[in-house]
Amino acid sequence: MILSGSASQALAAALAVELDCDLGVVDYETFPDGERMVEVPSIDGRAVVVCSTPTSDAHVELLLLQDAAREAGADEVVTVLPYMGYARQDRAFSAGQPISARAVARAISAGADRVLTVNPHEDAVCEFFTVPAEPVDAAGLLADPLPDLVDPVFLSPDSGAIDLAESARDAHGTGEVDYFEKQRDYETGAVAITPSEVSVAGRDVVVTDDIIATGATMSEAIAILGERDPRRVFVACVHPLLAANARLKLANAGVEAVYGTDTIERAVSEVSVAPVVADAL
Ligand code: R5P
Questions:
Q1: Distance 211 CA to ligand 1 centre (A)
Q2: Residues spanned by the domain of 20
Q3: Known catalytic residue: 182?
């Protein structure tokens, strides 16, 4: 049976179709003091808990769902983290700080037999879980919603996302791959990008990244591209977190369209990761 976090219902439904298995209807509640509660149907066999954790409340909801699944009879709990929150906090940046990704991974491991997570910021985050954990690669799906492109360039806004650009280009079938270099000021969140010499005049550009959070990285990259007279600039990401005014920043920078997956359910979630998650299960 598939069980869903409240923010992952569309993906859970798509996964149930892919796997041809039951989709449990979960009741979600928030008590007057802010505490969360869930209630799941009775389960016979394996429970697959699908729950992105973009917020701290979602983390708690996941822990409750895992526990409820066992209480309801599951003999195995497989947790799917379409988007794993806190994964980017994979080190202590100064003395006295936690390794937050490790802390949440350990907590999740306490209620799971196995964990899958879609394109975590670094695959190494899987080593923080104390149960078998593996990444699922959805990068190839980023080419699905793209229109016909003219002499395309697939560009990553920093060197860490070049694999995504290559996967999207390979899935699209043609195009050049390039990347910019990025430096972030962790005090202010400001992003400075050092562009490459790639020529984009008259060409379509697809900027790919794993996450769009504040939109600072993408909007800076698009602004630089805009000075080089591209035909159109598209943006494709796995996790369209799009916090606060990120979508406005992208529009203002001149993006033609934004495409994301349903690891985080947003208006731009044009692609479902259900097929690749189903394969991994
Ligand atoms: C970091 O290296 C990631 O790949 C993304 O580039 C980053 O998380 C995006 O964050 P933001 O949208 O806040 O710039």
A1: 6
A2: 2-137+276-280
A3: yes
> What is the whole-number distance in angstroms between the Cα of residue 37 and the centre of ligand 1?
32
**In terms of domains, do 165 and 100 share one?**
no
Mean pLDDT across the chain: 96
Q: Are 239 and 212 in contact (CB under 8 A)?
A: yes
The distance of Cα 66 from the centroid of its chain, to the nearest Å, equals: 21
Pairing type for strands 191-194 and 204-211 reads unpaired
Mean pLDDT value across residues 236-249: 97
Residue 189's pLDDT is what?
75
> Given the structure tokens 């039951």, which residue do they identify?
22
Global model pTM greater than 0.90: yes
Q: Which candidate in 59, 102, 121, 182 is catalytic?
A: 182
Residues with Cβ within 6 A of ligand 1?
158, 160-161, 191, 209-217
DSSP state of 124: G
> What is the rounded distance in angstroms from the CA atom of residue 255 to the CA atom of residue 21?
39
Q: In angstroms, what is the span from residue 182 Cα to ligand 1's centroid?
A: 10
The answer to whether residues 192 and 223 touch, using CB atoms and an 8 Å cutoff, is no
- The protein residue whose alpha carbon is closest to atom 4 in ligand 1 is 210
Is the domain of 172 the same as that of 204?
yes
Is there a domain that residue 164 lies in? yes
Per-residue pLDDT at 83 exceeds 90: yes
> Tokens representing 93?
């940046």
Is 230 a residue whose pLDDT tops 90? yes
Any residues with CB less than 8 A from the CB of 277 and at least 6 apart, and which? 11, 15, 18, 50, 80, 82, 116, 118, 136
Contact 58, 51 (CB under 8 A): yes
